[in-house]
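cron nightly-structures :: item 1 of 1
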Amino acid sequence: MARRAWSEVEEEILLTNLTSLVDQGVWQAKNGFHPGYLGVLENQMRVSFPEADAILQIPGFGWNPNENKLVVQNDVWNEFVRTRPQLRQFRDREFPNYNR
């Protein structure tokens, strides 16, 4: 599996969301996080990064389940990243844990 470094913004949002779990009492100093915390964290991250799933709702985008990659025509992709250049890196990226 290829590794990807998180951006500073992504790390900050993750830490903010983890801190929120501590503030909500989902953390116990003695035992760590309560069971099920990852589901709560995942939902918080989805709120923080709403485009992560929404991209598949855009006409022209699809999903290749065999390769775990986005499928999109060049003209659609070029228009999409014109206004979101920070997402350019995801064009040919595999997401092996997407369904998890």
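cron nightly-structures :: done
The chain has a mean pLDDT of 80.
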